[in-house]
Write a structure and sequence with these properties.
- The structure holds two protein chains of two kinds.
- By secondary structure, chain A is mostly helical.
- Chain A is elongated, with a radius of gyration of 24 Å.
- The longest helix of chain A is centred in the C-terminal third of the chain and has 42 residues.
- Helix content of chain A is 69%, strand content 0%.
- By secondary structure, chain B is mainly alpha-helical.
- The relative contact order of chain B is 0.14.
- Classes of the chains: A mainly alpha, B mainly alpha.
- At the A-B interface, α4 and α5 of A face α6, α7, α8 and α9 of B.
Amino acid sequence: MKRSLTTLSVLALLGVGAGLYFGITAPLDEFQGVFQKIMYVHVPSAWLAYLSFGVVLVAGIGYLATKKHSWDRVAASSAEMGVFFTGVALITGMLWGRPVWGAFWDWGDARLVLTALMFIVYLGYLALRRSISDPDTRARRAAVLGIIAFVQIPLVHFSVTWWRTLHQAPTLLRPETFEGMSSNTIDPAMLRALMINLGAFTLIYLSFMVTRVWIAQMTDEIEQREARENLEIAGAGITAPNLEGHAHA
Amino acid sequence: MSAREFWRQAFEIMRKDLKIEGRAGEVLAITVPFGAVALLLLPLAIGTEKSMLSRIGPGMFFAVTLLFGMLVAFRQSATEEPAQRELLTLLGIDPAATFVGRVIASSLLLLGFELVLTPLDIVLYNPDPVRGWGWLIVILVLVAFGLSLVGTLAGGVTAGLRTKSTLAPLIVAPLAVPLLIASSQVIEALRLDRSILNWIVLLIAMNLALTVAGVLTARPLEETSR
């Protein structure tokens, strides 16, 4: 466990270093200039947010099908990661929007608004988890909400093609082509930097996930041990013997 | 269980829910006036310029429906208390039938809520007339059904929690936004004489996805509520 975590962390650090190098050395965008480089953080964050919420969906279905709490720990950890990466995507998007669009926030951009709503939905998911103390109830209800919440993800992703608003249309995965990497709308050096950063962010996600799932497992074990220690051996109906021989009224 | 038995159970749950509403009058006496107050207050906050109010009138109607209509889905129900749930389990009622019955009852009440507020919105905001306004009926039905689905599901996951009154709206409001967007866009498309097919498809797809999710997760949710 510790060894795999160390390996993942080292790989993630190397990936971040490579991502920074290729991101900095990639050519400048003709129109956006240096601000385009924010995309090397923004796009991977947005993709990892989708991945995280996809994992919440799969883990929720896994829990409902098997009732194994390991699925629930994966769902909870991935939801936290998803909220984190959505937050990063929103903040970097706004930082990019200020110089390029002229405003941090634009109501005309469907994806920006829907991403903010997606952020709130998963904050609600985490709030629901915090509101329930019983592990079985928490796991089941969170699994159901994780499944329902995913309904909006395709809407967020395809919003830029369904509504022709301010947000840039997808550069890599266009619904009409599905050729992704072969798309020639992006400079090869920029594409390389973007893909390396995507890989680095995925490694960060994996190392965070392994750590968070491990912490969740430890927390569950401590809670179970405390519950066992606090259990009344003979039930509440049996009281301690009265050794002094005085009967209580 | 046969399909006939399933629908009989769902119909009974719906009938009980509507009967409770008939006695308590929660939607008619409280939620509808609450929504009407919202429609009255909004122009006082954003300005009373007639052309602006005509333009935003339909959008305001759907925003009020979303925000106040969710209270309809959270209202008192025939399947809410632990004792009621235990009785339904002992009687062998399918949790999916309970879910469907509750959704249909809430949809009918939400449709009533919308039908009362529609003329009020027209009187207060004087929205621009649009061609093909008959489509509005279809939109009202789809929005009522979608909001009822989201509300019932959120009510299910927050049932019995101390934080239900704040947590359930936090879940419903962002999840119901696609309904708000699609319904407002239909009005806009009708106004500009554009196709509304994509928005209708979006509403139907969302309702279908939520129905499938609700029916499939009804049993695990019901098991946590006892």
